[in-house]
Amino acid sequence: MRLAFILGEIGSGLRRNLSMVVSVILVTFVSLTFVGAAGMLQLQINQMKGYWYDKVQVAIFLCSDGSTAAGCAGGPVTPEQQESIKTLLQSPAVAQYINDFQFESKDEAYKHFKDQFSNSPIVDSVTPDQLPASFRINMKDPQKYQIISETFSSQPGVETVIDQRQLLERLFSAMNAASLVAVSIAGVMIVCAILLIATTIRLSAFSRRRETGIMRLVGASKTVIQLPFILEGVIAAVIGAALASGTLWAVAHFFLGEYLSKQYPDTAFISPGQTLILAPALLILGGSLAGLSSLLTLRRYLRV
Amino acid sequence: MIRFENVTKVYDQNVRPALDDVSLEIDRGEFAFLVGASGSGKSTFLRLVLKEDRATSGAVYVAGQNVAKISSWRVPRLRRGIGVVFQDFRLLPQKNVFANVAFAMQVIGKSRSVIRDTVPEVLKTVGLEGKEHRMPHELSGGEQQRVAIARAVVNRPGILLADEPTGNLDPTTSMGIMGVLDKINQNGTTVVMATHDDDIVNEMRKRVVELKNGVVIRDEAKALYTSMIPIVGQSRRLKDASGREDPPPSPEDQGLHPGEEQR
Q1: Which of these, A230, A274, B232, B235, is most buried using a 10 Å CB contact count?
Q2: A223 lies in which domain range?
Q3: ipTM
């Protein structure tokens, strides 16, 4: 009975304050979309880092069947060439610059590739044969990349030497800057949302002061009096958060999945499903912000 | 049922207290009028009983409990034991008669079936049978006040506080309302009524507590509105001639119309 009563109160409150409720929904929607966008950029960065990013700096790719580089004129790398590269890596002249190195076979490369590109259609058309084997090197001082590059580029069987980290780092710093901008905009919008929720609850409490006055007199508990107002704010904010989650999913599905991944098939993009891990966070963030600001407002404007 | 022990209430340090060292006891099942001019402390008295305000000094006991010692989350329980009626009815305009009364039961979590059984019964007590589905604006002032009384007593409180319940009503309607309050009182509810309405007080012949500037200046059983001139009916003439909110007539005024009896 009391539950039905509270739900009825919430319904009438939402109806009576419809325009304010809609604006709360929209403001939380926009602000949480920005929060979510920042989260998506971070997810994307993680996706692009792939398996090796945090472990090594420099990759020596070995020649494979389809290699067209000048150093690969002699066809795919032979076991002897591979062995001599390995020996060179272990020689004191080189070893002084590196912490350690690992060999990634074609099969391992395929496995890591599959993990990273699991959302991309490209994964179906790639076989282990097409992927080069490589030595992955963890440098003592990443700045000394040139030395490794000069030493190994001319070695037979080496297709290319890449400082992957340096390439990606420029991109990542741009993406980090973008997510910082998104978070700042989100911060301003969240302040807006909190103030708007407070105003809405205040209006709502004012327009129902007769009811709440009578409720006090007949001895309704604080919970019964306040809960409808708090839930009103929380419901509006949660609807906004749900819209924001839906928008992020749509961006991941239609923009990243359908458009960008076709334009840049060699880039690993996050899947729409991954954006859904942001949804609970957004819902909780929206709901708790609304609940908190409603509670503080009621403490000032609704006597119980 | 209600006991004031040396209660003083000061709203503003620079002004005289609203209640000044008031000691008073109203027993269970009693019917008491609280009379006095505006600002004499009647409303403050009622507010202290409801714990809307806190006494500056002294103790207020309601149903044996010192209200100052009731923690804030238990105040609703105190208020469930007290019904309140106001001069301006305070009905919810968008709810019909039944819903207005049921509201008081809904908010404290009574079940639908209890509400369905109790509300018609209470409406019958206040004389509103068959008007369950009227809206407040379709009712006369007297009927609206009856709805308000029904709402105040539907949860069977031990105490009914009425703050000038007949202040907006004509004399005949007022007497009807008094009949309802009397009936409720006879069912065992303690009734405390603050009023300016001398006719009603004189008619009812109940206990009268008169306040002046926050001090109890008179407390008589089966008394009249004014104790000085115990002639029934004088005051009505004066009031009819000069409006409702007049202060009690002075002895000279009454002397101008000796022997003019209204009833």
Answers
A1: B235
A2: 2-50+169-301
A3: 0.77
